[in-house]
Amino acid sequence: MSSDNHFLTSLRLELAWLSGRHWLSGRGSGGAGVVLRFERVRPRRAGRFQPLRSHEITPKFLDRTIRALRRWKFDIVSMDEVCHRAVTSPTPRRFVCLTFDGGYKDLIASAYPVLSRYGVPFTVYLPTAFPDRLGEAWWLALEAVIARESRISLVMDRQERHFEVAGRAEKYQLYAFLWGWMRTLPPPDLSAAINDLCKRYSVNLATLSREAVMDWEDLARLAADPLVTIGNATVNYPVLSNLKDADAQREMTMGRAVAQTAFRREVGHFAYPFGDRAAFARKHVQMAEEAGFVSAASALAGVVHAEGRTNLHALPRLSWDGRQRSLRVMRVLLSGAAFAPVAPTRSKVRDEAN
Questions:
Q1: How far apart are the first and last CA of the chain?
Q2: Who contacts 54 (Cβ-Cβ below 8 Å, separation ≥6)?
Q3: Separation of alpha carbons 116 and 322, rounded Å
Q4: Is 35 in contact with 295 (CB distance < 8 Å)?
Q5: For 286-317, how does the pLDDT look when each residue is reduced to its tens digit (9 = 90+)?
Q6: Which residues are CB-neighbours of 67 under 8 A, at least 6 positions away?
Q7: Using CA atoms, how far apart are residues 298 and 301, in angstroms rounded to an integer?
Q8: Quick one: average pLDDT of 131-147?
Q9: Cα separation of 285 and 188, whole Å?
Q10: Is residue 17 scored above 80 in pLDDT?
Q11: Helix (H) or strand (E) holding 336
Q12: Helical ranges in the chain per DSSP H
């Protein structure tokens, strides 16, 4: 999201707060509840170039959020409870479910102390290659390269390309451009591209990836807490739309199998890597169901409706923009006022027709 779009979105939501739309939103638009999607939780960093800042919140903001949810009379529930409330009749109180993508190490270092202090349930979606020390956090490596350099060269589509990035604006533009390009590459090409870039500019991709994510010891500590749900997000965290069907299916089934072996329990919940409209398709929704997952979470904005009106294998979530620190904006989003009503799922339509 550009700075201008971020500002306009924030302004629109602040105006919605002032207009009272969040109070007027009925259950038809507000649904049964909302699943919140976070990624990193760590203290705010210095530095002018932070292209992934929208993916971060601070421990202080997480604390404020939990206290606000309780003040607003939301039930903070587990992912199992989300699935239950999505298929049953509406309850008087709406719910919020807290989820964290990526398995980042700062989850246990900075977020878990806050979450455990309040005794609230939450879900972690884990790509299993990363605690195995085989995952490649290419988006972090790309940030590290651009942050350090003023001129960058790399091979794109078999041609050597050169970019001047002396200023902050140019760095942000190049990051967005290369991030978008890398998102379209099949995994072997993506790995080759980021490893070539890291080699040219002396960024240790393996070390960067290892230091950013939890290891199995960290995860075992979380898994021992009955308030924590461990979900899966494939093995390597690929864009599923870039894979052949057999490879996409293998990423889902192997990721689940590895996690179940590691934690010696059923892993029933899944999150599509990246989770936006370009990252997965309808066929992947079917694959997730066939793989045995009870739910599969996207990053598509929306609220969860009761009585089977939400497809649990295309579960909407609200991805919180870490640049936004207004609880007023969060209250408007949680109300559902910003989202169009959702049509019943195919199974619900079929039941009603009968």
A1: 44
A2: 1, 6, 321, 322, 323
A3: 21
A4: no
A5: 999 999 999 999 999 999 999 999 999 999 99
A6: 118
A7: 8
A8: 97
A9: 24
A10: no
A11: none
A12: 3-19, 21-24, 27-30, 59-71, 79-87, 105-106, 112-118, 138-148, 168-183, 187-200, 205-212, 216-223, 245-263, 282-290, 327-335, 346-353
User: Which amino acid does the sequence have at 313?
Assistant: H
Picking from 299, 304, 309, 307, the residue whose alpha carbon sits closest to that of residue 334 is: 304
- What is the chain's mean pLDDT, rounded? 90
- Of 153, 141, 242, nearest to 194 by C-alpha is 141
Token pair of 237 as six digits: 């965290």
The C-alpha atoms of residue 92 and residue 81 are separated, in whole angstroms, by 15
Structure tokens at 274: 């990246």
Ramachandran assignment for 234, one of left (phi > 0), alpha (psi -120 to 50 degrees), beta (any other):
left
Classify residue 87 as exposed, middle or buried by CB count within 10 Å of its CB (0-12, 13-18, 19+): middle
Is residue 21 within 8 Å of 337, Cβ to Cβ?
A: yes
Report the alpha-carbon distance of residue 59 to residue 13 in Å, rounded.
23
Can you give the length of the chain in residues? 354
Paired with 76 in beta bridges are: 96
Residue 261: beta bridge partners? none
Asked if 245 and 283 touch (Cβ cutoff 8 Å), the reply is yes
Mean pLDDT of all residues in 53-65? 97
Q: What is the dihedral of CA 306, 287, 107, 7, to 10 degrees?
A: -70
> Do 123 and 99 form a contact (C-beta atoms < 8 A)?
yes
Q: What is the token pair recorded at 31?
A: 């649904």
Q: How far, in Å, CA of 333 to CA of 35, rounded?
A: 11
- Find the DSSP H helices in 94-204: 105-106, 112-118, 138-148, 168-183, 187-200
Task: Indicate the DSSP class of residue 1.
Answer: -
